[in-house]
Fold each of these.
Amino acid sequence: MHMPRAEKIWLTVGLLTMFAFAVVLGVFAFVMGAQPPSDAQAMDPTKVSQTPPFNQPGLKKLGPNNYVADMTAFVFSFAPNRLEVPVGSTVTFNVTSKDVVHGFELVGTNVNMMVVPGLVNSATHTFTQPGDYLILCNEYCGTGHQLMAAHLIVK
């Protein structure tokens, strides 16, 4: 089969580009140790309510302006569904699911994670502006999905 010279050139350029992309991806993934965040802690999703710290979900103060929020997601709610922190606080969110895959999006921030049963997902954010931050489930989880929300009040 005859192939025009220009087509051979573009085919070669395309293959070299794909190879270069694979090399760069490999360097970042393996040599530099880039890994997706969290999902480092696993648990039995049927025992979330008995497993610390999720047996008593809530906000815990670790130090001045430093908090950890242990939260559970379940059809169709978050526990706790209301949190309050002062302006300037850094909050680490540890979230797990009791039943199905949920989402955890803190509207107006870069906190956005998938909450998978059996895995604990974590994200940290510093709140420099006061306001009512809405926490939404952004993964369809059933017929009451649109009702699944919580609030973080920054005063």
Amino acid sequence: MQLRFTANNGEIDKLIDELLEKAGGIHHPTIVREMILAAMKAGQDTDYLADLKLLSNTMKEMRYTTLVFAPYRQTKKVTIFGSARTQPDEEMYLKCVDFSRTLAKRGYMIITGGGGGIMQAGNEGAGSDCSFAANIRLPFEQSPNTVMLKNPRLITYKYFFNRKVAFVKESDAIAVFPGGFGTLDEAMEVFTLIQTGKTSPKPLVLVDDEDGYWEQWFKFVKERLLVKGFISPEDFSLFTVTKNVDEAVRVIEEFYINYHSIRFVNGELIIRLNKELTAEQVEMLENEFPELRRPDTRLIACSARPEEADEPDLMELPRLAMRFDHQHYGLLLAFIRRLNTF
């Protein structure tokens, strides 16, 4: 029979409902029901074993990722990318240890790829108790570092794409140290996700070395990408380049002085704040960032929308709302930094 996600599957729907009840403890059963149907539909749609294995392993990895990170949902986390080949006596290794240690002392947890080099430096500075490691099975260069070897927050992935989801989804900020192809791949993906609104706004800090690794990259971006129109001037709001550890930490902390988080509700962008803005401050933001709003719409202060009731711990936060122009995620980062000045 042809299965449907709507409840029109007759006896199958009854069996799924019975299964959910029998299992017990199922949260959000409507969503879980769709997941069961998706698995069954996949089994009907393809007889190619490799495709089904990929779907199965993907869900298993993402389920375990959620399990590991869930107890720390309220703790801010910073993902650190960088070369696995950086040695413990090198400048950038020591700088990364200092950076992650400073963040851990201020209540942050650190997420790394769990390998050597910059990844080990990040875990070393934060310490095992304040660290996560999203490791990847590779034939060379990637085994768990000594800090995270038997840590319950060590996750070893088969698929790069699941690992990348964890790096970005679970983080409140990203710091990228110099590295090779893997580091650049991870950094460019974060750029793309923030620029296109496929992840929530978050600070992206490029921590430079004395040779200007990121300065040279920045020059390329200005002289090639910007000049040719491949990016917009507002995209430079997506990131900060710095050689200074204290500045890197400050960029991350200042991003959350007043800004808390965002959510879209019925096409409306809801910006949740830690403290309420005055009418004059809201008007100032509206006048300074007109491009963010769709024509003939306003930026308004508001309370939580009814649809946000599934996040009860956030319901009391003050909010701003607007009909957002999705062409301007770079400018949205600048907007958030501005509201943090009030």
